[in-house]
Amino acid sequence: AAKAAIALKSHLTSTVGKQMHLGLDILARWIPGIEAGDVLSIAAPFKQRKTTLLLNILLQMVRKFGASCALLMLENTREMVVAQQVCMLATEYLVRNGLYGRNIVGEDGALIEDIRPNVLMQARAGYKNWDKRRVAAVDYGIAEYHKMGNRLRIYDRRHDGLGSMASLLRVTMRDKALYKTDFMGIAHAQR
Questions:
Q1: Over the stretch 31-41, which tens digit does the pLDDT of each residue have?
Q2: Would the CA dihedral through 125, 136, 143, 103 be positive or negative?
């Protein structure tokens, strides 16, 4: 206990390091900022949107603060993650243009706000035949995603051989060396 008390006193008298905001105001009440070496865990039952929260944090840190971020994705493919984030950005477009939450049916018979990653991936170039407002939203999402350049990187099992602790460490160290990573997230399938 004595050593722990001394360590805590030392910590409490030190200066705060570089703080990074997670980019989501709702989280700032509980987590005002993170420093290098901090570890966060998002724990919840199956299908409770943990990965969605992580993807939102990554998008906000890159877009609002210019952070260098990476995602180690063990539960999905890189392509599906990009589609998820493009759909999030497409929803942003719909919200900003007053089209979200109004149950507007487009010329193609679908709700304008019905932009889901699996549907987008299946549609491929056919998404261009959707209602023009849905197409504009997806195109906005793609353009915004493209603007992030190499400030957001996604690694997965298929393209990067993730799976073992050694592979995670290898990719983490490589990413840190190449991109001076500010924040890295890991999404893994629950078993």
A1: 777 776 666 77
A2: negative
